[in-house]
Design a protein that fits this description.
By secondary structure, the chain is of the alpha/beta class. The chain has helices at 14-32, 45-51, 57-64, 88-98, 122-125, 165-181, 196-212, 223-232, 244-254, 296-308, 313-328, 346-358, and strands spanning 2-10, 35-40, 68-73, 103-109, 129-135, 145-149, 155-159, 185-190, 217-222, 239-242, 265-269, 275-279. The chain is built from twelve helices and twelve strands. A ten-stranded mixed sheet has the order 2-1-3-12-11-4-5-10-8-9, with helices on both faces. A two-stranded antiparallel sheet has the order 6-7. 45% of the residues are buried. Bound molecules: nicotinamide-adenine-dinucleotide. Nicotinamide-adenine-dinucleotide is lined by residues 13, 17, 73-76, 92, 261-262, 278, 281-287, 293-294, 297, 335.
Length: 359
């Protein structure tokens, strides 16, 4: 297979971790006889410094012509001035919009070797394997909002959660199709007892599931209950689908289950065109340039890229199993060990992943 992969290293530790994921993808290309063409483009703070724009036109054009995109992270204290004309995060929001990336996939998988790094008890989290689908381009973050001055001197602010039938249909379909390939279970999370937009979600998803996915076990859970269930019985969920804001909050809550930010990848997909893959962590300015960032989340994001954008399941599994082997052998980066304990740097842990791949 010959594929074009656009790299958006971004800021802070972004270039460090993306560089290591590229080494792993190159090893996969050699081992499985594929050709991956990589080209690197600007996004975020570095793009603002060099072009004045967090997402230059040339980056958008390159992304549109790619088969898949691998992103590091954007942002940092250098670009934090609240009065600045543009911010690094604007680049991220714009690329999602330009590419119509309406679904954010976040796998929450615990690694047996890291169970004791989690703030939750081992017997509760052991075996957790959830795939979240968060709607990414609608709902409360994109509906009409405003601020007005009232005659009595107060201010009144509002934000509205807006969804259309087709916006709900497309993400529920995508999530249900993923459930078919996994353990055959889909949970839809809403607040239908209060919100009209949630009642639309409930009607539309029930219809799609009945008409198109009758074999998938389907249930609905209210978002407040879900916040509790995630901490008390995470292993009972397979695929979870929900709206933008509920997904934002629940996926961050769930990211604590595996114990470290440095292990979690995510993907943003549209109905066609390239997907965008990235670690869920930020640019970690506190450790940038020190060679100690954990590259495993980005390496696992590259496995998602192979699976979801290039259809290379065997290759994706090879990366995931190599990462597991490295952890099982006891190797850790600094974020996974108690402060001051011996650990491996960004390059050294990737060397071991490459060795495990070749074995
Ligand atoms: P962060 O995820 O960058 O860092 C939080 C903590 O986790 C830090 O102590 C950091 O050192 C550590 N950490 C994160 N990733 C790590 C890794 N791979 N290996 C080892 N340790 C790791 O979050 P933050 O500090 O809140 O944000 C820093 C900057 O990143 C901000 O400018 C923020 O806006 C930006 N950010 C960007 C994205 C993105 O690009 N998608 C996401 C979140 C935050």
């Amino acid at each position: 297979m010959h594929s074009k992969i656009v790299l958006l290293p971004g800021d802070g530790i972004g270039p460090e971790v993306v560089g290591q994921a590229v080494r792993v993808l190159e090893a996969i290309a050699t081992q499985f006889k594929h050709v991956f063409d990589f080209s690197s483009h600007l996004i975020g703070g570095i793009a603002i410094d060099q072009t004045g724009d967090a997402l230059p036109e040339s980056t958008t054009a390159a992304c549109k012509g790619a088969d898949a995109i691998l992103l590091g992270a954007v942002g940092g204290p250098k670009w934090d001035d609240p009065n600045a004309k543009t911010r690094p995060e604007a680049g991220l929001l714009k690329i999602r919009k330009e590419l119509g990336l309406f679904a954010n996939l976040r796998p929450i998988v615990t690694f047996d070797e890291l169970l004791d790094s989690s703030p939750l008890k081992r017997h509760i989290i052991e075996g957790t394997d959830i795939l979240f689908f968060r709607e990414l381009t609608g709902g409360l973050y994109f509906g009409a909002s405003g601020l007005e001055e009232l005659p009595d001197g107060q201010q009144r602010a509002f934000s509205t959660a807006v969804y259309t039938t087709s916006e709900v249909e497309r993400i529920v379909r995508m999530a249900a199709a993923a459930a078919v390939k996994r353990r055959g279970k889909l949970t839809m999370v809403d607040k239908a007892n209060v919100l009209e937009a949630s009642r639309l979600w409930r009607r539309v998803s029930a219809r799609i599931m009945k008409e198109e996915f009758p074999t998938v076990e389907y249930d609905v859970v209210l978002v407040d209950s879900m916040a509790m269930h995630l901490l008390s019985r995470p292993t009972s969920f397979d695929v979870v689908v929900t709206s933008n804001m509920f997904g934002d909050i629940l996926t961050d809550e769930a990211s604590m289950l595996p114990g470290s930010l440095g292990m979690l990848p995510s993907a943003s997909l549209g109905s066609s065109g390239p997907g965008l893959y990235e670690p869920i962590h930020g640019s970690a300015p506190d450790i940038a340039g020190k060679g100690i960032a954990n590259p495993l989340a980005t390496i696992l994001a590259s496995a998602m890229l192979l699976r979801h954008s290039l259809g290379l399941e065997k290759e994706a599994l090879a990366i995931e199993s190599a990462v597991k082997k490295v952890l099982a052998a006891g190797h850790r980066t600094a974020d996974l060990v108690p402060r001051g304990a011996a650990s491996l740097g960004t390059i050294a842990i990737t060397d071991l992943v490459l060795q495990a791949l070749a074995a």
